[in-house]
Design brief:
The chain is α/β, with parallel strands linked by helices and 352 residues long. The protein has helices spanning 12-24, 31-44, 55-65, 83-90, 131-141, 193-202, 224-254, 281-290, 317-323, 337-351, and strands at 48-52, 73-77, 94-98, 118-119, 146-148, 156-157, 160-161, 168-172, 186-190, 207-209, 212-213, 267-268, 274-277, 326-329. The strands form 5 sheets. It has a 4-stranded mixed β-sheet, sandwiched between helices. The structure holds pyridoxal-5'-phosphate (PLP).
Length: 352
């Protein structure tokens, strides 16, 4: 690929931090872990952050810590990565998938039933969802909100960082994300001490004290070396977000049609994905591929159309239509202005 869809980053600074941690700290539970957690909590604006092994485990452990389990029902949008729903099933609760707003692909609660036990809104593509609507839906029923902020490190809604808006925020550090840890990793954020302590225990086999285990749990900790790399990445996150926002403005100015998904008017997107919505999506994608430019579809199949969810028989027409129109363009900070102009030229050949 002349311009790949995604470029993995490994800098000298990341390498030095990794080697230093491997040589000087315990591989598991080293001081880089607690430092990364403190710095991440401070960055998001919550009292606590507890690291875990992935975004998926962040979501699953958060649900467990909030007491979600068998016979419970949890709402989440169908236009997301499958982990947003799998975490619900892993607790033996039932996923209640909702349709989406055609405008930006985010959760639409207008047809949702008012008797569930928790809600997982997703800040999809790095764009904050309409959190006031989520909050009033949750407050009416007095249910917890677990934010899926796996794509939205540093995004803001009404001046507050996502991950600090609900009861727990969940982040992924998978290599394609806006910040990574040199492998899989995740983080939970909360202001509630009891929830933070439960998450800490569940990620560590349900441990209460050294030799006492009082709940079910997993081995879902973040390794020290990954935390050390995460600290470096966190320090550079904001400058990378600035670059992502520059890239989207180049796309917006140079594309022949206004077809980039909009930013929440009450928020600030971190543009994990820069997404086009266009009837000629397949032609645009072919033109890009033929010219050595990577692109991706998030998501080719909404969650309810995945084989493992078909048994629920959900009818969610917006998301199905949306999945045929969207195309993610390269959005990473290393992309140059010239490369961005070039991508626009190929897209314009089809839509201009
Ligand atoms: C919206 C969303 N939720 C959950 C996840 C799961 O994160 P992970 O891959 O770290 O388990 C991801 C990332 O892949 C994601 O994009």
């Amino acid at each position: 690929m002349k311009i790949p869809f995604f470029v993995q980053e490994f800098t000298d600074e990341m390498e030095e931090a990794a080697i230093h941690a491997l040589r000087n700290e315990s591989f598991v539970g080293g001081e880089s872990v607690s430092k990364f957690e403190e710095e991440f909590a401070q960055y998001i604006g919550t009292k606590y952050a507890v690291s875990v092994s992935s975004g998926n485990s962040a979501l699953q452990i958060s649900l467990m810590a909030l007491g979600i389990g068998e016979l419970d029902e949890v709402i989440t949008p169908t236009n997301s990565f499958i982990a947003s729903a799998n975490c619900i099933r892993m607790t033996n609760a039932k996923p209640v998938l909702t349709d989406i707003d055609m405008n930006d692909g985010s959760i639409d609660l207008s047809n949702s039933k008012n008797s569930v036990n928790a809600i997982i809104p997703v800040h999809i593509y790095g764009n904050p969802c309409n959190f006031d609507l989520v909050k009033s839906f949750a407050d009416k029923q007095d249910i917890p909100i677990i934010e899926d902020a796996c794509q939205a490190h540093g995004a803001e809604y009404k001046g507050k960082k996502v991950g600090s808006l609900g009861d727990v925020g969940c982040f992924s550090f998978y290599p394609t994300k806006n910040m990574t840890v040199g492998g899989d990793g995740g983080m939970t954020t909360t202001d509630n001490e009891e929830t933070a302590l439960k998450i800490k225990s569940i990620r560590d086999n349900g441990r209460k004290t050294k030799n006492e285990f009082d709940k079910m749990g997993f081995t879902m900790r973040l390794n020290t070396v990954n935390a050390a790399i995460g600290r470096v990445q966190l320090r550079h996150l904001d400058e990378k977000t600035v670059r992502r926002r520059e890239i989207v403005s180049i796309y917006r100015k140079n594309l022949a049609q206004d077809c980039v998904l909009p930013e929440n008017k009450d928020g600030k997107s971190v543009y994990h994905q820069i997404v086009l919505k266009h009837e000629k999506r397949d032609q645009i994608r072919k033109e890009l591929t033929d010219n050595g430019i990577g692109s991706a579809i998030y998501y080719e199949r909404p969650i309810h159309r995945q084989p493992i969810y078909e048994e629920y028989n959900y009818k969610l027409p917006n998301s199905e239509k949306f999945s045929k129109l969207v195309l993610s363009l390269p959005s990473y900070p290393q992309l140059t202005n010239e490369q961005t102009f070039e991508i626009c030229e190929y897209v314009n050949k089809i839509i201009g």
